[in-house]
Design brief:
There is one protein chain. The protein is an alpha/beta fold. The protein folds into 2 domains: 65 residues, no CATH class; 235 residues, TIM Barrel (Alpha-Beta Barrel), CATH 3.20.20.70. Helix content is 28%, strand content 13%. The chain contains 11 helices and 10 strands. The protein has a 10-stranded mixed β-sheet. Helix 10 packs across helix 11. Bound molecules: iron/sulfur cluster. Iron/sulfur cluster binds next to loops. The site of iron/sulfur cluster has 11 residues, from loops.
């Protein structure tokens, strides 16, 4: 596989004139911190070495997420997820730019058809945060996203009656406006063989103000069964505002699941993972997957070995009821399902 040059991530901006005031989440996203030195200063770490962002995958972190970091703590588990580091730029053998085989699994631009009955749509390349371990950090979004593709996706799904579930992904699909998402969901709901709408998003964790009435309205107002899979890695990410946002989603009737990535120095400790499961449960969310790191260039310093992961799962099993135990998995390109470890 050729090594691709990282592309600039697309930030969530609208070129249309604003007829109404921007919702709070949009304003928060617009003022997110993009310079490592500003973030370090906000945390009282101005004397800590300020790393340069690798070109193409700059830093992005909203203030509400920064507010959950501990001041004066360079090893804070939230800070480590977002702060670029010099170790990102070196080449690591065994790591690639498309570690889960997304490009090979694309049936048409922006539509990934890996697993039976489900298709994943890359609605946008924008996120509200840039996670340094992201497996799509090198993805060539510009050729594979955009409203212009939506009609071809609809035609593809209409023509394949084996597809019963559509997954909104990206980037983060909830960086798009509710009006646009709502219109697209209406069109999907007209396809008779579709039954389930799944949203993969980190927004309720990173920017809980994104959980608006408008969002809940289109998500629960469709005939499609809604599922939301959020992404939290550490209990410190779930403060009272996040917990409240998650409870609202669940109360509205959306199945709410969490997936985490096992990350060295962040959550590679069974008591942290057990606390995460409990905190999620208190916020009406069930642990779903614990992923081994996808071996993407720039993220090798986060890897936890399979042996270590199995040891952690053994400890977790001893301390949690079965329904709070995430499934340890890894994703491998070309496989018909995720691999359980
Ligand atoms: S892990 Fe998710 S939220 Fe984070 S950068 Fe990747 S796509 Fe965006």
């Amino acid at each position: 596989m050729s090594i691709r040059t990282p592309i600039a991530r697309i930030t969530a901006k609208s070129s249309r004139p604003e007829a109404y005031p921007k919702p709070r989440w949009r304003r928060e996203l617009a003022t997110a911190i993009r310079q490592p030195e500003v973030l370090l200063q906000a945390l009282g770490l101005e004397h800590y070495e300020s790393p340069l962002s690798r070109s193409g995958f700059g830093m992005l972190v909203p203030h509400s997420y920064v507010a959950r970091m501990r001041k004066g703590e360079p090893r804070d588990p939230l800070l480590l997820q977002v702060l670029p580091g010099g170790h990102e730029s070196g080449y690591a053998a065994g790591y690639g730019t498309d570690p889960v085989g997304d490009l090979a699994a694309m049936a048409i631009p922006g539509l990934i058809h890996k697993y039976q009955g489900r298709v994943l749509l890359l609605l946008t390349g924008a996120c509200a945060i840039h996670c340094r371990y992201c497996f799509r950090q090198h993805f060539p979004y510009s050729a594979n996203i955009g409203h212009r593709l939506w009609d071809t996706w609809l035609a593809h799904i209409r023509a394949d009656t084996s597809i019963h579930e559509v997954i909104f992904s990206g980037g983060d699909p909830l960086t798009l406006d509710d009006r646009r998402l709502s219109e697209f969901v209406e069109q999907l709901a007209e396809i008779p063989h579709l039954r389930t709408l799944r949203i993969h998003t980190r927004l309720p964790i990173v920017l809980p103000s994104r959980v608006t009435e408008a969002l809940l309205s289109w998500l629960t107002g469709t005939r499609l069964q809604p599922v939301m899979v959020i992404h939290a890695n550490h209990p410190q990410e779930i403060d009272s505002e996040v917990a409240q946002a998650l409870r609202r989603i669940r109360t509205a009737g959306v199945l709410l699941l969490n997936q985490s990535v096992l990350l060295r120095g962040i959550n590679d400790c069974s008591s942290t993972l057990a606390t995460l499961s409990r905190v999620l449960f208190e916020a009406d969310t069930l642990p779903y997957y614990l992923h081994l790191l996808d071996r993407v260039q720039g993220a090798h310093h986060f890897e936890v070995s399979e042996k270590e992961a199995l040891r952690l799962m053994k400890e977790l099993r001893a301390s949690l009821p079965g329904y709070l135990l995430p499934r340890l998995v890894k994703e491998e390109g070309g496989k018909v399902s995720k691999t359980s470890i």
